[in-house]
Amino acid sequence: QKLAAAMNPAYALMEKKTAYKDATTYNNFYEFGTDKADPAQTAGSLKTRPWTITIDGEVKKPLTLDLDALLKLAPLEERIYRLRCVEGWSMVIPWIGYSLSALLKKIEPTGSARYVEFTTLDDKKQMPGLHSPVLDWPYVEGLRLDEANHPLTLLTLGMYGEVLPNQNGAPVRITVPWKYGFKSAKSIVRIRLTRDQPRTAWNNAAPHEYGFYSNVNPQVDHPRWSQASERRIGEDGLFTRKRKTLMFNGYSEVASLYSGMDLKKFF
Amino acid sequence: MTPDRLQIARIKQILFVCALIPFLRLLGFALTDRLGANPLEFISRNTGDWTLYFLSITLAITPLRRLLHVGWIVQLRRMLGLFGFFYASLHFLTFLWFDHFFDLEEMWKDVLKRPFITVGFAAFVCLLPLALTSTNRMMKRLGRHWQRVHRLIYGILPLGVLHYYWMKAGKHDLSQPLLFALLIAVLLSLRLWWRWSGRRAASAVS
């Protein structure tokens, strides 16, 4: 299903886009199974309409929006972002959406709001992977409010000129391109503004391996593998050396969000 | 119901071809571009899986022949073990070639720094003497020591499963490694049990 959007020239990345087939058949979305081929096969059971998303917590105007309202809330833009998975591979994907800040402005965070928490749908009937106890469901992710308000943080409703395929987090997800992929919560049903740092799914499951921040950082290795390099899916074949991973995945404009912070400690 | 020499030779031929199927499948996939979005990951996982399968079957031979009274299957054990080594070598080669491009220094860094790789590497190194002493001549030459060398497998398989466990731990998906751990625990404790209960058949224990 087509989704019209104008290219935002500020994010018209000059890198080869990942093939649609790779981007839609190689996914980490544990609600649909832990194998990366699983979501493409099992996500058909997800019903993306009707869909509502509730925004509440430390806000002056809590809000529940359906998908159509969400699609009309701000002009849709196309943006090409690099996506770096914590597992050491990467893709380049043309997303469609608008800055999350547009939505956050509407609900008017209170003075004590410091974090934004995203919750993924938690319905065993639609998501077979929820039967397996690999994570503490529902999947929760979070950002600091200033991170969430950064123009790069994209409330995402489509990719490749279409609405999001189910396995990529339909009907609405976020995309935070300077952080490892798992920080970008999929199939979101609730956005909550909080005073305290949210308990996020992977940080909860393995705090020594996955930090709350999880910024792409070639200098901080995962305990089980190096993060210094990555394999670009579809481009870096078996006989190509992996490419160097860039600090903040190349989005150096976010560096000021972390000035004065020890990113080895707050990894 | 014991097969005669000719039948065993036939069974071995069939087993040989069957054991090559996973390798041929990989080769076919590689040639027809069907290794998926991340070919390195595919090959690496696939060869790792088959290493564990073959080594587990090898370890199951002794309990099986005692429990099912099929003594002759011991004649298949060497081939099964060597196929385990074959897939382990492919697994290691994938790591050395496609992950590190034969940069030995880089590889060593990885081996030393990351317990998950350390353990896998150690298991592979321990497999080498087993493979090298698998010929009839070496068996004869080593005599009683041969069995002692080949008991290394009791350590190698747990290391291999630990390697797999740590790999899967990242995914928090431990059902498969735990299944392997259980299987190997059963296979090893059967041996201990037989040993302790002193009911050692003349041909047993390996």
From TrEMBL, chain B:
Signal peptide: none annotated. Its cofactor is FMN; heme b. It is found in: Cell membrane; Membrane. Residues 47-160 form the Ferric oxidoreductase domain. Keywords: Cell membrane, Electron transport, Flavoprotein, FMN, Heme, Iron, Membrane, Metal-binding, Transmembrane, Transmembrane helix, Transport. The chain crosses the membrane at residues 12-30, 50-68, 80-98, 118-137, 149-166, 178-194. Its main location: membrane. It is a multi-pass membrane protein. This is Protein-methionine-sulfoxide reductase heme-binding subunit MsrQ. Belongs to the MsrQ family. InterPro entries: Fe3_Rdtase_TM_dom (IPR013130), MsrQ-like (IPR022837). It comes from Undibacterium griseum. Heterodimer of a catalytic subunit (MsrP) and a heme-binding subunit (MsrQ). Binds 1 FMN per subunit. Binds 1 heme b (iron(II)-protoporphyrin IX) group per subunit. Part of the MsrPQ system that repairs oxidized periplasmic proteins containing methionine sulfoxide residues (Met-O), using respiratory chain electrons. Thus protects these proteins from oxidative-stress damage caused by reactive species of oxygen and chlorine generated by the host defense mechanisms. MsrPQ is essential for the maintenance of envelope integrity under bleach stress, rescuing a wide series of structurally unrelated periplasmic proteins from methionine oxidation. It holds the Pfam family Ferric_reduct.
